[in-house]
Structure formats: structure tokens, C-alpha cells
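User: Fold both of these, please.

Assistant: Here is the first one.
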Amino acid sequence: MNQDYIKPDNWSIIEEGFDAERVKSSESLFSIGNGAMGQRANFEETYSGKTFQGSYIAGIYYPDKTKVGWWKNGYPKYFAKVLNAPNWIGIDIEINEENFDLNKCTQVKNFRRELNMKEGWYNRSFEATLKNGTQIAVNVRRFLSLDLDEVGIIKYEITPLNKDAKIVYKPYIDAGVTNEDANWEEKFWEPLEVKKATNEAFVTAQTFKTHFKVTTFMHNTIFANGENVNISASTIDSTSDKVQFHYGTIIAKGQTSAIQKIGGYTVSLNHENTLAAAEKCIKKALNLGYDQLLQNQIEAWSKIWEMSDITIDGDVKAQQGIRFNIFQLNQTYLGKDSRLNIGPKGFTGEKYGGSTYWDTEAYCIPFYMATKDQQVARNLLTYRFNQLDKAIENAKDNLGFKNGAALYPMVTMNGEECHNEWEITHEEIHRNGAIAFAIFNYHRFTGDYSYIPEKGLEVLIGIARFWHQRASFSKEKNQYVILGVTGPNEYENNINNNFYTNYIAKWCIDYTAEQIKKVAAEYPADHKRVLEKVVLSGAEIQQWKKVADNMYFPTSKELGIYLQQDGFLDKDLVPVKDLDRAQRPINQKWSWDRVLRSPYIKQADVLQCFYFFEDHFSREELQRNFEFYESFTVHESSLSPCVHSIQAAVLDKMDMAYTFYLRTSRLDLEDYNKEVEEGCHITSMAGTWMSIVEGFGGMRVKNDQLHFSPKIPKEWKAYSFKINFRNQIIKVAVNHNETTFTVDGDQDLAINVNGKTIMATPLATA
């Protein structure tokens, strides 16, 4: 834990007291989004202190030229960045002729932020004394509509406390923005058109290179004591990329003045005429009005929580943590558009480019499968199918592979590789396996096999061809090996025979061969179509199988474990418990050379394999490998604690499982890795959900049947969750005495609980 200022609360994230050193962290934690757009919790008014401005639009990106010391063949030409979008929230404010800036006020008291997760809004309130002596109370509420997902709304209220006040509101929209993480300090937006009308304005701009067109809009209304004062702007400032209105008002001491600002974006991904679409958005929002928009927001979030909520009784921090994770996942992606995916930072920051990583397949798909309609998960699989041609191109152009071998990118926005670190881009090839595993996992959980003959088989064949060509035959070992890779543990680069990579390569080939046979038997027309398209023969499949059947796996017979890679035991094996805490996190304290030579593991690696393929190993094997590797794992990846929590629960190490659950659920709230000001760890939040459902709940799908082995931390009185399993909603409620299963519907459901099959009905208990 590196911070502890968020107040425990079941349904809200709350900060009390103004601290300029916390502003950037809070901008991340209080971020809001609606799947189509999102923004950090920047102040609307001028703020001269340390801040990280960020507003983002789903699917809008820029190919920022890769910046390296020298160029190597195979480097991606660019690193795709989620763009800092034009700013629509800005409201400069003058109070009695002084520009209002919290960083320059003589006093700020009763400062409070609240992110209400139950209802989907962000609120900020405080009292401030300006240098001119004016004392004011401020309350600001902001939300991004789930129903009108191109629209956001702000209500900014000011009450002078000690004297009458002349207030000038200066709302603006501004396309002259830059990215915090730009490589070359380039401008990303080209202004095209500015339009002004009564109390509303529009700036249309397009991205350089990618030519996404965006119209940013605003509409302003001024209120006094809750009544519309029906005034228009006295002055309008305008440039090629910015419009700012001036509204002058006088409000008596103790009375409340307010500006209501409607804003948002319309994009060329969805509209031919973005300006006309923006005008319609404003009309729709005005017709509904603020109160109705807020009520619709509350109802929309209520529907989301009805299915996705996890309740925890007796542990407020644990409850707050899981709801924060579920809330941010739903703010980031709602599954409406198969062109979109889930970036590791979502709408909370720019690190990692806002792009798609293997996190989606390994961590996020289980959450979306179980808490939404299966079509949402299918859309995520379709995203990869639609980019298969570029994965084949990537393997061909950068690795020299042939015959339709596919290497999916480590990082992508449109299917092209856009990660600019060579040891990750070309060596962290295990991401191919996660994509194949997601296809298997989708069928296993939903029972929907149709995706495989329709789309998935082509993806699997491309991946199997990649593994066949990437493996090489070792005469010394008389087996196939995979050299020069980086496993999930990125604290080892360019190593040989990473156990997880080798294992998932073998599994991918075996699974693909099985699916080819199954499709041939059950979907002969699709089988013929696919095999003719990819020109696949039985002889080629036999060559794949030769590799899979003779894959090498590094092991230590003495320790009874699988080795993370061939040379792991050659390291100075000092366990984490003996590492000076002042040296943590090592990625911020040590040189990269020292990190790579150390035994310290960034995230679950061998154990990631045990997580995916749990049924392939015995409990005793899991225990030996878990106890060995846990002692060297520093968990400096957000993706690590959840896997360890799940496996600790399997091994009845409940104290450890609970500790890891708290770490994954409160990773950002307590800033474990000292980086939350850069944004939240969105994709790993799905792992937090897995820690409860698969860890404590013990949920698995085996032989088309749900299995549970429920356990409960001693710190909790009870917990509950729901899953959508094959279009039946099952609620699982666990306390220290019993587990109750409730089926939402009129059909009984056979469930295996601790090895015994029961029929789950509204009254069934175990």
C-alpha cells in the first residue's frame, strides 16, 4: 500500500480534504466513462497545479512514430496511442474579477469528491477563499450518459458566502490538445470547422494520419436559484480550434448561481455528418433535461448492477474494491460494438496506448461472458477474427513466416502491431495462445460451438501454423524447443523454453487438430470452405502434431517443479521476503540489466499455465510449483495477484488468498505499484472478479456442467454473485454455514458442488 486516503464506503469512492499532491492520483481514481468515451476527473475550472488532462473516445487513435535509439529490422513503425480528445468540460470562471483557481486560493476547506458507483455520477464540493477575499461554496456534478452515449452533462453551482459576487462563466470547447505521452510533441488534431449558435458551439477536427473526424459540442444554460435566467453569451471568443463563451451574472450572498453544460463527441466511425449528429445530440439532451438524464443514468446503472454486482458482508474495503473494479470495467466496455476492445488503462490514462493486449482474452472475457449476454464475449472474439489477415501479414513481414501462419500483435488498435519494444513485440508470443484459449473458453462456458466453424477455426489454424514454424528441433534434446522468448514474466527477456509458452504452443496445436476433426464431422460445409480457403492438408496437420507430441518442457526432478525457463535455477535464488522493501518496486529502483538477472517474477508465469490448464495437473503439482514460484514473485504486474489468489484458494491457503484479493481489488485505490496517477489498471480488474467467482466461489465448467467448491475468508460474513450460464441466471450466496444456489427461471439446473451433483432450484442449498 502506498496511499490510504480513499474513505471506505460500500457504494462510493470518496476523498475528503484538498491535497495538491493527490490531484493526479484522484484524476485517475474518479474517472468516468460510458463505453463510448471517458475522461479523467480533471477540474472544470482553471487549475495551475500539477494535473494530467485526459479525455478519450473509444476507437479513436493516432499512429505516433516509434522513438528508439536506433532502428532494428522488424520494429513497428508506430506506437498507437489513444488520443487525448478535444476538451469539452472546460469552464473558466471569474469571481469578482479574479480568475478562480484552487491552486491559488488562500483557503480550501470541506473539499470532498465522490464517485457514486451505484448511480454512475461524479461529484465535487468544497468551500474556497479567493485572494480578493470572496468566499464561495461550490458543488459540481458530472456524468456521461449511458443511454445517450455521445453526451455528457455538468452542473456547476456556486454560492457566495460572505458577499455578493459578480460571476463570469467562460465555458469552452478546445481541440488544441496534446497527449501527455507524445513521443515527438506532435499535434494530433487538425481543426476543420467551427460553428457558433445561441448558447451552443461546435468544433470539428480530424486526426492527422488516421483521419478520424470528431465534432466536439457544447450547450450552456445559466441558472439562478434553480431557475433558468435565459441569458445568452455576452462575448464569444473563437479561433480555428476553440470556442469560448462569456456569461456575466450577479448573485447575492447566500444565493446559488449555476451553469449547466451539455457536451460530448460525435465521430465519423458512426456518422457521415458529425456536425448534424452533434446538433441532434444537443436537442435530445435538452428535450430530456438534466433531471431526466440523471434519472435515466441511475436506472441504466441499476440494470448493470442487477447482473454484475458482487456483495460482500462484513468487510467494507473488500466490498468497495470489487465494486470499483466492476464499475470501471463497465465504464470501459459494454459490448455494443465489435470494432472496440478493452485497453489496459481504459479511459483513465494514456499509458499502454489504450490498445488491445492479451489481457482481453486471458482476463476480461470470463467477466463479460458471465455478467452479460454471450454476444458480448462473441464480439470480443470477432474482433480478433476480423484482424486475422493482419496477424498473418505480421508473421510474414516481421518474422519471415509463410503459409498463413498468424502472429497476433502484442498491442493493437486495428490489427497491426504497434508495440515498440522489440523484446515484447517479437518475443512475448504467448499472446497467440491466449487468443486460442479464449475460443476454447467461450465454447466451454456458453455451449455455443457455432463461432468455431463460422470464424474461430481460421484463427486456430493460423495460430497452429505459427507454433509449428516457431518451434525448432534440438538434436541434443531430441525434442522441439522454442527459443528467444519472453513469457508472461516480463522480468526475463530472450530466454529459451519458457514453460508456459511451450505448453500453450503444444495445447494450441492439439486443440486445433481436434476442432478440425469436429468441424469435419458436424459442419462439413464449413470444413470444406475453411480448408479450401487456407489450403490445409492432412499431411500438414501431421507435421504440426509431430511438434506438439515432442515438445520439450524444462523441469527440475529434484524440486518436482516445472522450470520457468531453462536457466532459472542458475540465478541467485534469494526469495522476495529477503529483499529490502526500499528496493521495491524493482522496476523503478533497479537497472533493467539487474532486473533481468534477478530471480524476481513480475507476474504469474508457470502459474498462469496452471490457471489455464488446471485439470492437466495434480493438486500436488500445483502446490509444489505455487510454493516455489510465489516466493520469488514481486507482483509488479497488475495481472499477477488475481491468479495467485485463485490458486491459494484452491490450496486452502485462505489467508494468502484473501491478502491477494485485497491487493488486486485495491491495487489502484491504494496505489500498490506507485503509478496510479498514470491511470487505473482496467483489464486486471476482471481478474479481481475472477478472484471471488473462481477463487473463493470455486466456479469451474467441466463436462458441460457448472462446478463450485465454495470457500469464504474468515474476514467476511457472507458474499454473493450472479453468473449468466447458458442463458440461465444463477445466484450464488455463501456464508460460513451454507451455500445457496438460486436459478432465475423455471428450469432446474444440475450443479456439482464439492464433488456432489445437486439440482439447483430457488430453494436448493448445499
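And the second sequence with its predicted structure:
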Amino acid sequence: MPAYTMPGLMTGQNTNDIVKKLVELERRPIKRWETENEYSKAQVQIWGEVKNLTTNLQTKSRALVSFTAPFATKSVSSSEEGVITGEASRAAKSGNRALEITEMASKHQLSGVAVDTDIRIPEGSFTIYSGKSKETVTFPGGGLSELTNAIKNMAGGLAETSIIKIDKDSSILTVTSVKTGKKNELQFSDPNGILKLAGLVGENQATSEDTKQLLSLDTLKSKVWEPTKFKKSETETEKLVQTEEGISIKPDTAFAVPIAVTEIKERAFVEVEILGEAPAVMELGIGFEKEGSVRNKFLPITKTESKYIFPAGDYASDKNLTTIILSNAATTPVLIKSVTLVTPPAPGTAEPLKVLQEGKDLKIKIDGVEITRETNDSIADVLEGISFNVHKVTEKPVTLKIHVDHAKGSLLIKEWVDAYNELMKFSKEVTSVEKNGKISDKKESDDSKSADISRDFWDNKSKSGILAGENAILRLIASLKTTANSYYPATKENGFRVLTDIGISTGAVGSNWEKIQDGLLQIDQERLIAVLSENPDGVRDLFASDPNNDAKMEEGVGIRLLEILKPYNQYASGIVTSKVKLLEESVAGNNKKIKEHESHLISFEAKLKQRFLYMEQGVGKNKSVGNYLQNNMFRGNGGE
């Protein structure tokens, strides 16, 4: 008897459809796992955004608690626009000062006389001086263009040159100092007559000799210098000893010895001559008058033959020398033969032919006191904590204003509030709950829609936040609110204890209660600017303070926030990292289950089809037997 292979032929049922429905019913766990995976992947993205927002708030909080936070940054301006600009540090004192600019610093400008444009100048060398600097230019020979190029390449830091064509046959060479100020005027030494041929200077003069002034040291009025370093100085028997040969300085002693007041010229130096053995390096110094007080300069000097050369003009040019400081760190006495102030001659030996503009110093008056400087820019040694640039002469006194620049601090706080609000708003959205939603996991009666977890459950999940009920985020929201509304110790006088003191709140008085409950911060800009202008240090202490004076910031809104956020963003064991890891492991586990169950479905479907085939074959056999019996019985009855 042949096997019946056409499904439903014998039973009259669509067995393929039955098998398909049974397989779909068996597939339900895969649908559930796939749904769980989609939900887990969405949660991973949400946790990633939580990490981004918490990290952003961490960054903004660190900026607020940093020692370099610009709350007390000050700015400099003048009552007349364009006179002065500058910057002020925290050390600068706020207030107004009377200011008058009587003369601007200017560059030294020189002009030569007209020479033949095609002049050929032989090779040679010359030296250019400006202030304490000098450059020797080696000229290979050539015309005016080659000369200007040589100056540019070898002395470009001191002088700028140009050629002006008078007519088709004549040209003039001009030279301008790079630096402003009287001391930076240009001087020239022209032994080979190169600059003279170019029409810039006159005859080169012979160099004059140094001017030497022997200084008389009053050893009887000497005073001990740095006794903590030179410990034997205060011993009565270790005083300076004046002999016929000179002054003897005993070991481990140092003294400041007065002299008759003497002016120190530019490039002048103090020459200390020694008799006999002396250390290779000796510490020497000078005392000089500056701005109404005595200043000292003390430094190690290397011995040259039997002399020590102290460059006094480098530190006290045009100041009055009042004291010579002598020391001996050696183990044997040092005998000083003489102390001489040496003033070299002016370096220039060739005078410029034409001066278009003299080098001038800046002259300013602050509170009626006249001050001169070589430059108009970056003047940082006049007022404490202030660096300023001068741009023009004033026709009358103006006001120099030094005040707190609240713009940087205000921007920093605004960025912090924005970061706080973004995290708070996002956290509330992802943990929101659909109040009218019903969560159930009962089976559906309709097999075509049934699953292990009901549609109501997933529908409600889509209506609520994807992290609804997540304790880690709910704790974060509560901690943020508590931190923003807490009181903090005020470590300074007139300090601030709560954010509302500086104009940051969850809403003004009379605001909607629901909005206040949201916990989002608002800034009263007018109030914030006022407190930043009046008490910037108090604002900074509200975010980070050191109540124990142990040089460690322990209190404040910013410090508290950093402590709260730290567990969320730790790289290896942070809350966010752990949550993402668990979700990824869940997805990987479900994928494994799905793969195994799909393999099961293949064999399950094959078994169902085999069983229905056996059933079809059985029904077919039964029908064949029935027909056989019926036919035989019919024949038997007919035969009777």
C-alpha cells in the first residue's frame, strides 16, 4: 500500500497550517527574548547619555572648585575710552586712581643724506648698539639693498632699515630702533666707514677710555649681612678688618658696607680686586636707591684673574649706589685690595647725521606721582597685580578703573547651572511613570497576540520612562536636589551659605509649585552679577571651601556634587559601567537562548510533520481496510 505524502488528503485537515501554528506557539520565548534585547539595548543608550551628562556636570563642577576659577578676575579700563587697557590679577586692589599720560614712549628714528642709488660699498664690519644690546654686522660688500639686508639678517632685533628713493639717481637710508625709550636709542661704531659711505653717520671717532672711581668703604659703619647664612658675622672678633693693604673678610662672614652716594651710569660695573688667594666664585652685591627706598642685589660672581666684576649698571642704571656687600664663604680670609666703580664710554663712535625723532620714554602720573618707563606696553611693575598698555596722551587727567570682571565667573556659573539642569531633566524623563498604566504579565486568550509578557506591560513601558523605577537614578535626582538646597559653612566674613544667596534657586517667590518641585535651577542674573562684583571670594567659597584650614577643599556645592557623581563615572566599577555590563550580558545570554531555541524549532517542526505524516498514513490505511471489508461483505451478501 503506497504511503500518503499529500498533507490533509486523508484527514481533510490542513496539517501544514496546524504545524505552522504549533511552531509559532513554540516560538513565543524567542519573541520575548528579542523584545527584552531591544529594551536592554535602549537602556544601554540611555545609560550612555547618563554618563555623558554626569561627566559634563563633573567637568563644570571642577571648573568652579578649581583654584584658578576666575571669580575674582579683575579688569582695567579708563574713564576716557582708548587711553589704557590691561589686566589685573586677584592681588590687585579694586578702586579708581587718577591717571595722566603726558608723553608716549617712542622709537629712535634716523635718516641719512642722499647718496648715489647705484653706490657700491666695500666689504667690512660695523656695530649697532641699542640699550644693553649690540650686534656686529659683517657686510660682504654691495649696494644699499645688500646693506639693508645685512642689517636685517644680523641686527634685525635692534634696528629696522629702509631705502627712500629721492629721484632717479639719489636714495636715502633710514634706520629706526626696534624698541622704544631713551635708553634704546641707536648708536654706531663704524671703523671701516661703511655706514659713512651709505650717508648714515659721520666720521668714526677714536674710542675713549673707561672712567674709574675708587670707592671708599666705611668699615666702621658696616652691618651684618644674612647672618643665618654667614653665621660668624655677628661674632665680635669676626668683624671686617681694615689694614694698610686693604680690607680683610674672615671666613663665613658677610657685611653691607656704606659708601659715599655715587650715581651708577649705564653699563657701569663694580670691580673688586683681590690680593693673594681667593675662591673661584664669591658672592657680592650692591645697595642702591630706587623710588624712595634702598634695594639690594646680591649674587655669585666668578673671578677673572684677580678681580670680580659685578654688573651694577644692569640692575641699577641711573640709580644712586649707597652700599657695597662683601662676603666670604671660604675657609680662609679674603683680602680686598680695592673696590672701583668703572664707567665705560658711550659705545657709539660715529654720530648719526640726521635725527628724525629722538627715542622717548613713557611719562605717566598716577595719583600725582610721575613715573617713566621705556615702553608703552605690558607695564606690570607700577601697580601691584596690574599689567596695562598705554595708547595715547591725555589732554586732562582721567580715571584708571580697577574692578572685578564678573563676566568670566558669571559664564562659568551659567554653564554649571545648564549642566545641572540637563542632567536633572533627563533623569526625570527616563524615570517617569505612566500613572494610569497597568502592568500585567497574564497570558492573552488570543494566541496570535500572546507572549510570556503581555502587551500591556510593554505598552506601558513605552509610555513611562525607560528607566522607570531605577533606584540609582532616583537616588541621583534626590541627591542633586538636596545638594542644591543645602546650607554650607561660610568661611569668610559676609560669606554665602546657600545658592539662593547668590541668585540661584528653583524658582522665584510665588512660582508654580510643580515647576519648583521639578528641581531645575534658575539664575537671577542681576543678583549674581552684584555678588560677583562685591564679594567674588564669597561666591567661590560657596562652591568650594576649606573650613579646617588644612589646604584641602572639603565643603561647598561643587565639592558635594563631585562626591555624589564620583560613583557613577568610575571607569571600572562605576554604577553606569556596571549597569551597562549587566545589560550587555543579558543581551548576550538572550542571543544564546535564541540561537539554541531556533535549533530546537527546526527539529520540533520536523517531528510535527513526521507525526502528521504517520497520522495521514494511518488514516489512509484504516480507510483502505474499511473499504476492503465493505466491498467483501457486499459481495458476500450478494452471493447469498
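Residues 1-6, 437-454 have pLDDT under 50 and may be disordered.
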